[in-house]
UniProtKB/TrEMBL annotation:
Binds 1 FAD per subunit. Its EC number is 1.8.1.4. The gene is lpdA. The keyword NAD applies. It is found in: Cytoplasm. Its cofactor is FAD. Belongs to the class-I pyridine nucleotide-disulfide oxidoreductase family. It comes from Mycolicibacterium gadium (Mycobacterium gadium). GO terms for molecular function: dihydrolipoyl dehydrogenase (NADH) activity. InterPro entries: Class-I_Pyr_Nuc-Dis_Oxidored (IPR050151), FAD/NAD-bd_sf (IPR036188), FAD/NAD-binding_dom (IPR023753), FAD/NAD-linked_Rdtase_dimer_sf (IPR016156), Lipoamide_DH (IPR006258), Pyr_nuc-diS_OxRdtase (IPR001100), Pyr_nucl-diS_OxRdtase_dimer (IPR004099), Pyr_OxRdtase_I_AS (IPR012999). Keywords: Cytoplasm, Disulfide bond, FAD, Flavoprotein, NAD, Oxidoreductase, Redox-active center. Residues 347-454 form the Pyridine nucleotide-disulphide oxidoreductase dimerisation domain. It catalyses: N(6)-[(R)-dihydrolipoyl]-L-lysyl-[protein] + NAD(+) = N(6)-[(R)-lipoyl]-L-lysyl-[protein] + NADH + H(+). This is Dihydrolipoyl dehydrogenase. NCBIfam families: lipoamide_DH.
Length: 465
């Protein structure tokens, strides 16, 4: 007797999206979660990290209120961060979202089973020795922070994003190891709230060396450096040594070696899939030597019939919204429908640093490497009225298009780039011509006019460009 249509292992964005979408299509679903529903994203990732970034935004705004003609009635007019209160606020947001998600799962009649799910060799899921029978299984066990030997996290001196997203205290001096998306976001927060911040990245470039168009990465690095982040690219760090006052961290760069003393080291060198010890290989589910579950991305099916995998545990972009999209593909496959697979070359990417970085599609370098003859037009936010009004004129819109052809990639850095991406994501995926997008009206005054101007420039004419 089969109890469920689908049993999902892991209740993060991948797993809970599969459960909610599957239940909305009439499937009977069990969701096995060993910790809190919401996974990394809600509990110790996207949501708390963005709450801290918003605090940094308020901090900047408050301390620059005088620029807008707003002065304190009394006092010095400078503001400080109360990280205990920040942490309380973050916890409040997380609790509301986790509570809302739990309610939604209940209303959709998804059975949430608490415990660690493992696969048995016959392809069933077992939780604490109890087998849960289902026609299909979805693996959505997600990922966890990677560590470096000698940098084992203790949650106080050496930490990962798991700790920093929920901490109630701020270090005075911090070294962030890794300048990828997570490291850059934390460096941005720390710098803006007055923490003495050093960023050490193994690759040349220093900030976001992999992923975005490098013109954007350089613009972000310049902005962070101007605000006080000490960035060391091409850096080899040695394990920290504890001292009476903190920790000493030695590092080497092509220009020489140096040491810094810090109170905390945040290790942000990437994330590894959670797949070890869960019986995957024994159940016939192929796993790569780096621990990713191998899938056919047309269906998200693993090598074992009836078992699917989605989210960070598969080797696709480690983003919550990619996990959502993969959940829909897996459920449609289970329903016997023909899903539209995720086009991984055109997913939306956002880095919520100050300034924000957002893109979809090919970078200039990728487009050239793919052999396209390309045209590029850019528009700087320094020429945009709304950017001046909100006091954030750093950044630009950069459009990469095939010569006399469709848009291949859109790259944004600047105010609300995260929200501006939506139109551009659509244009890239619709394979629109830049002049088609340029012919649409963008409201005035708005940040989106920068996009309209960059698109219009492809016609050889312009308004304010
Ligand atoms: P996870 O969210 O990791 O969830 C997996 C779940 O499975 C966990 O709850 C875990 O407890 C559970 N689990 C694991 N093994 C078992 C088992 N054997 N039995 C039962 N349960 C199990 N992405 C974005 O798109 N936007 C962002 O702004 C963003 N910011 C981020 C900021 C930080 C600091 C971090 C760390 C990540 C961020 N991400 C962001 C990435 C995002 O969090 C992940 O891509 C997303 O959480 C992946 O979802 P998932 O369901 O695959 O895995
Ligand atoms: P992401 O995968 O986006 O979280 O980025 C992780 C970043 O950490 C990448 O830019 C890596 O190059 C960087 N990185 C990995 N290992 C190290 C290391 N040992 N020291 C410094 N940076 C590292």
């Amino acid at each position: 007797m089969t109890d469920y249509d689908v049993v999902v292992i892991g209740g993060g964005p991948g797993g809970y999206a599969a459960a909610l979408y599957g239940a909305s299509a009439g499937l009977r679903i069990a969701l096995v979660e060993g910790d809190a529903v919401g996974g990394t994203c809600l509990n110790r990732g996207c949501i708390p990290a963005k709450a801290q970034l918003q605090t940094a935004e308020v901090f900047r705004t408050a301390n620059h209120a005088g620029d807008f003609g707003i002065n304190p009635v009394d006092g010095s007019g400078t503001f400080s961060a109360d990280w205990g209160k920040v942490s309380e606020r973050t916890t409040g947001i997380v609790d509301r979202l986790v509570g809302g998600l739990s309610g939604l799962l209940k209303r959709r009649k998804v059975e949430v089973i608490r415990g660690r799910g493992v696969l048995t060799p016959n392809g069933e899921v077992s939780v604490d020795g109890q087998a849960i029978a289902a026609k299909s299984v979805i693996i959505a066990t997600g990922s966890e922070p990677k560590s470096i030997p000698g940098f084992e996290a203790d949650g106080e001196r050496v930490v990962t994003s798991d700790h920093s997203t929920r901490s109630g205290t701020l270090p005075k001096r911090v070294a962030v190891i890794g300048g990828g998306v997570i490291g850059a976001e934390f460096a941005s927060v720390f710098t803006d709230v007055g923490v003495d911040t050093t960023l050490l990245e193994a690759l040349p470039g220093g900030v976001l060396p992999i992923g975005p168009d490098q013109e954007l990465a350089r613009t972000l690095a310049k902005s962070l450096a101007a605000r006080g982040t000490k960035i060391h690219a091409d850096a080899r760090v040695s394990p920290p040594e504890r001292t009476a006052n903190g920790m000493v961290l030695a590092y080497e760069t092509p220009t020489g070696s140096d040491k810094i003393e810090v109170d905390q080291v945040l290790v942000a060198i990437g994330r590894a899939p959670v797949s070890a010890g869960l019986g995957f290989a024994e159940a016939g589910v192929e796993v790569t030597d780096r621990g990713f579950v191998v899938v056919d991305t047309n269906t998200m099916a693993t090598s074992r019939p009836g078992i699917y995998a989605i989210g960070d545990v598969v080797e696709t972009p480690g983003l919550a919204h990619v996990a959502y999209a993969e959940a829909i593909v897996a459920i449609k496959s289970i329903l016997g429908e023909t899903p539209v697979p995720v086009d991984y070359t055109r997913v939306p990417w956002v880095v919520y640093t100050h300034p924000e970085v957002a893109w979809a599609g090919l970078t200039e370098a990728e487009a050239k490497e793919a052999g396209f003859e390309i045209d590029i037009h850019k528009y700087k936010f320094s020429g945009n009225g709304r950017a001046m009004i909100i006091g954030e004129t750093d950044g630009l819109v950069k459009i990469v298009a095939q010569k006399n052809g469709p848009i291949l990639g859109v790259h944004l850095i600047g105010p609300w780039a995260s929200e501006l991406l939506a139109e551009n994501y659509l244009a890239v995926n619709w394979q629109a011509l830049p002049e088609e997008v340029g012919a649409f009206i963008h409201p005035h005054p708005s940040l989106s006019e920068a996009v309209g101007e960059a698109m219009l420039a492809f016609t050889g004419r312009s308004l304010h460009g």
